[in-house]
């Protein structure tokens, strides 16, 4: 099954105090690391870059927000709207430990859901990890058919990501599945860097896991 990888990189990084997408992990910017991992799993990767045109040096298509100032949902919308494929995988630029093995597993689940849909099964529209009692909507696969509902939410100013996904039929991935698929602890896979102390923790994790071996 063909699918599009979307890196969400349009945030302001206000809590970090600097652009977290370009912070190095093992000497490689996080956004470059994620692009490499996605390219191992799919042939179409785009960057949803918010209102700016940053990251041109990565040589990937850039998609600016259509609904400016509306947060992660606007970034997801820009990526989905630019794709002609039935499924898209979105990953936030501050999740340095998401990897190709996990992306492939999520795509396999999405393909299984498509086959079930053709067999008149329940029409699931999201594949999403659920770890530590929390869904992870910024590391998930979305069916392109969610786009009209997403546009409705944006048009009405309903911008909370978790509120929006709560109304979508979803296939949840447990922490155990996540760990088996990625080869990493589930909590590490969904770890995101919002503050400087998170970045320091990420650097320590990377050293412990020797993640540099996964670089492109």
From TrEMBL:
Q: Per its UniProt record, what InterPro entries does this chain match?
A: MobA-like_NTP_Trfase (IPR025877), Molybde_CF_guanTrfase (IPR013482), Nucleotide-diphossugar_trans (IPR029044)
Q: What class of enzyme is it?
A: transferase
Q: Which residues bind GTP?
A: 8-10, 20, 65, 94
Q: Where in the cell is it found?
A: Cytoplasm
* Entry EC number(s): 2.7.7.77
The biological process GO terms on file are: Mo-molybdopterin cofactor biosynthetic process
Cell cycle as a keyword?
no
Cofactor(s) recorded in Swiss-Prot or TrEMBL: Mg(2+)
> What residue stretches are annotated with the MobA-like NTP transferase domain?
5-157
Print the keywords alphabetically. Answer: Cytoplasm, GTP-binding, Magnesium, Metal-binding, Molybdenum cofactor biosynthesis, Nucleotide-binding, Nucleotidyltransferase, Transferase
Report the transmembrane regions from the record: none
Q: Name one GO molecular function term.
A: GTP binding
Catalysis: reaction(s)? Mo-molybdopterin + GTP + H(+) = Mo-molybdopterin guanine dinucleotide + diphosphate
Q: Per its UniProt record, what Gene3D superfamilies does this chain match? A: Spore Coat Polysaccharide Biosynthesis Protein SpsA, Chain A
Positions contributing to Mg(2+) binding = 94
- Gene Ontology annotations for the cellular component aspect, listed alphabetically: cytoplasm
Biological role stated in the UniProt entry: Transfers a GMP moiety from GTP to Mo-molybdopterin (Mo-MPT) cofactor (Moco or molybdenum cofactor) to form Mo-molybdopterin guanine dinucleotide (Mo-MGD) cofactor.
Tell what the record comments on domains: The N-terminal domain determines nucleotide recognition and specific binding, while the C-terminal domain determines the specific binding to the target protein.
The record's section on PANTHER family has: MOLYBDENUM COFACTOR GUANYLYLTRANSFERASE
Homology family: Belongs to the MobA family.
* Name recorded for this polypeptide: Probable molybdenum cofactor guanylyltransferase
What organism is this sequence from? Paenibacillus woosongensis
Q: What is the lineage of its organism?
A: Bacteria, Bacillati, Bacillota, Bacilli, Bacillales
């Amino acid at each position: 099954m063909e699918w599009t990888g979307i890196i969400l990189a349009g945030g302001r990084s206000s809590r970090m105090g600097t652009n977290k997408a370009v912070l190095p992990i093992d000497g490689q910017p996080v956004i470059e690391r994620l692009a490499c991992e996605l390219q191992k799993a799919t042939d179409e990767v785009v960057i949803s870059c918010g209102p700016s045109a940053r990251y041109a040096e990565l040589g990937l298509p850039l998609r600016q927000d259509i609904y400016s100032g509306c947060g992660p949902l606007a970034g997801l919308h820009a990526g989905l709207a630019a794709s002609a494929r039935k499924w898209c995988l979105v990953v936030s630029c501050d999740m340095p430990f998401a990897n190709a093995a996990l992306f492939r597993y999520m795509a396999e689940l999405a393909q299984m859901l498509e086959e079930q849909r053709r067999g008149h099964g329940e029409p699931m529209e999201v594949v999403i990890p659920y770890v530590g009692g929390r869904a992870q909507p910024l590391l998930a696969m979305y069916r392109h058919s969610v786009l009209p509902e997403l546009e409705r939410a944006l048009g009405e100013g309903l911008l909370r990501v978790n509120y929006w996904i709560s109304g979508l039929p979803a296939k949840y991935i447990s922490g155990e599945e996540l760990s088996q698929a990625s080869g990493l602890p589930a909590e590490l896979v969904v770890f995101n860097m919002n503050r400087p102390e998170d970045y320091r923790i990420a650097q320590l994790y990377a050293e412990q896991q020797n993640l540099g071996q996964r670089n492109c």
